[in-house]
Design goal:
Two copies of one chain form a homodimer. By secondary structure, chain A is α/β, with parallel strands linked by helices. Chain A is built from 15 helices and eight strands. In chain A, the strands form two sheets. The first copy, chain A, has a six-stranded parallel β-sheet with strand order 1-8-5-4-2-3, sandwiched between helices. A two-stranded antiparallel ribbon of chain A has the order 6-7. The radius of gyration of chain A is 20 Å and the shape is globular. Chain A starts with a strand and ends with a helix. At the A-B interface, β1, α7 and α8 of A face β1, α7 and α8 of B. β1 of chain A pairs antiparallel with β1 of chain B.
Chain lengths: 389, 389
């Protein structure tokens, strides 16, 4: 096990009707003028936005609204949000939505108190100062409700990049599984793929003797395998939604990933896909992750066999562990297919001829590599995209 | 799943040599005059105390020392610590030791800023204010390094009672598995029993649809089953110690227990044992937990069968689930025996004739009960003690 730090100071409020406590929490964290940041009309139609507004009004906290966050949230709206916050003297950003809304809120929160261009953070500068952010989560997926990271897409050139910093970890996150019952099947499944990918980016490692985090990773994956089909079969199943929603947080606040080298190349490779085609991140991951697995599994057949046996319940083939490893990869493909996810370029709507562009945009030149399980160069990424065709 | 809050704001620093960062952390949390609280001579002999002192000196932070914390830490030393802190103007309490030292440090930290008798907190008053506490953990067991609770024994009458409050959650906890390599086998195993008991107090519940926390509980137990025998076989095995040490935190900061009714009656029943005989808490739990299981399993055979199958790898007996449930109980007894733990009164050195006294001291009269899986009355506790004979 490697040395590590773990710090997850977000207040989580989980369960039915908890969004009504948003105002009380904003007040506790000293917010006096709030930006309520949200996505499309569903938050309005469902009455969620009204409930959140009411909870702020009850605490006599004023607010301004900024909607319109799209999946793969754009820099243009972030600039707009920063301008609005400065004009209005906003001191707290409340995200009401999924990972895209939260990531956009984090970018705004960091940008408001930064003299330069907020995009600097997405070019690698650490975020050390930001307005406090709170969240009312509506989609289990990104894990942004408990993480220090944010991913934004620069509209000019559709560059998708991540930023990181303890300053943007949510002060509080409200997770009410009821809010997920209206989620369409495709978004439910995309979110599930993202959650599973967050675990698998951590799971596949060469770090030895990490039984505790191995087992915790497997715990999240096993939960998803049980609960996602249940939520798809009956979207109103509160219990299935609840298990998925908490699994989404556990998958990404790093409790399952400490003390081990993590990979994250599938995320980087996928970002080019969702930026270029503006597809759901989770759907892109369902395409890329199995291709990455197929490309790298020979570097640690034991780990992939463990994945097959412990997560998918495959029988270990003691005479041929590689066969077991491959069975695990096959099983996750089948699972993604079973929940309605694409598992190749064709199903996703991506094009073979764009591969060279995506490989180039990743910027893996001059010896720069991506990932740690295998340090991938441009030619490796090219091959992984082609395995996903 | 039940509604819940989760908040675990401790900074964890995990790994080799991390105790050298204690001074830097105390400074970050504003400590200027520290009480270093510790147990016996092992912290001195090992050089740990010197390293901690040096790290404070490097930050020009002054300190006073108070050693002598015993297992089942006493109120008498807490009073001494409170007096010393007031005299010396201490503003930060640094615990260097195991759960007993940390619990004693928490009691002192709460008592220093309280006008009344600190024991009020152990009679049920919530701790809402305390000096900040930091820890350098030397024994994986109590989970006090990441918890809001503290257990102290009142010497007059040997009453063992717990207190709770967010104010006493450690600001930081340093977990260096190297410090555990000198731990004798019995203490290693007692700590392991305590960790497993923390998980099982949460695991056995009637709350339905808690797959995520079920799986997380099982993850910790599976880790212990693998790693504890390894640590006992080779006390210097850093990796086994590391897995156990982090499992001990995960077992008790409540990440594996949120959203479900928890029981905690085995802990309460055990406290009478370790108070009366001054035995190791973990050893007492190894005696009490299987007896409690035997007494209550019929109230939820499915859950006990799940425990047997998922944690112990038993084959499910579909024609007779009760047989599987009983096999799980048998397996944990065997495990405790295999790591050198007592599993009955005789092995622990407890006496049948003291049962009425212990039952009485628990104070379950006038309709008061203990636990939630089954709400135990005095006569139930009596029977559980007798099942442990």
């Amino acid at each position: 096990m490697l040395n590590f730090n773990f710090y997850s100071p977000t207040h989580f409020l989980f369960g039915k009707e908890r969004e009504n406590e948003a105002g009380k929490l904003v007040k506790e964290f000293g917010g006096t003028k709030v930006l309520i940041h949200y996505g499309g009309k569903s938050a309005i139609k469902s009455g969620l936005l009204d409930r959140v507004k009411k909870s702020l009004e009850q605490e006599k906290i004023s607010y301004v609204l900024l909607g319109g966050v799209k999946p793969n949230p754009r820099d243009t709206l972030v600039y707009e949000g920063i301008k609005l916050c400065k004009q209005e003297g906003v001191d707290f950003v409340l995200a009401v939505g999924g990972g895209s809304v939260i990531d956009s809120a984090k970018a705004i929160a960091a940008g408001v108190v930064y003299e330069g261009d907020f995009w600097d953070f997405y070019e690698g500068k650490e975020i050390t100062k930001a307005l406090r952010v709170g969240t009312v989560l509506t989609i289990a997926a990104a894990g942004s409700e408990g993480s220090t990271s944010s991913v934004i897409t620069k509209e000019d050139g559709m560059l998708k990049r991540g930023a990181d910093g303890l300053a943007i970890i949510p002060a509080f996150s409200i997770l009410n599984p009821e809010l997920m019952t209206t989620l369409p099947a495709f978004q439910t499944a995309s979110g599930a793929s993202d959650i599973m990918a967050h675990v698998m980016e951590r799971y596949f490692t060469h770090t030895k003797d990490v039984e505790i985090t191995d087992r915790l990773c497997e715990a999240v994956l096993l939960t998803m395998i049980k609960e996602v089909p249940r939520a798809l079969k009956d979207p109103n199943n509160y219990e299935a939604r609840a298990n998925i929603m908490w699994a989404g947080m556990v998958a990404h606040n790093n409790i399952v990933g400490v003390g081990r080298q993590q990979d994250w190349s599938s995320h980087a490779i996928e970002h080019e896909l969702s930026a270029l085609y503006d597809v759901a991140h989770g759907a892109g991951l369902a395409v890329i992750f199995p291709a990455w697995m197929t490309y790298v599994y020979k570097n640690n057949i034991d780990k992939f066999a463990q994945f097959a046996v412990r997560v998918w319940g495959c029988e270990m083939n003691f005479e041929n562990p590689e066969a077991t490893a491959l069975e695990g990869i096959e099983r996750i493909k089948q699972f993604f297919t079973s929940i309605g996810m694409p598992i190749n370029f064709k199903e996703l709507g991506a094009k073979e001829e764009d591969i060279p562009y995506m490989v180039k945009t990743m910027g893996l030149d001059n010896g720069k590599t991506c990932g740690s399980f295998v340090e991938l160069k441009s030619e490796d990424v090219d091959k992984i995209y082609r395995l996903a065709l």
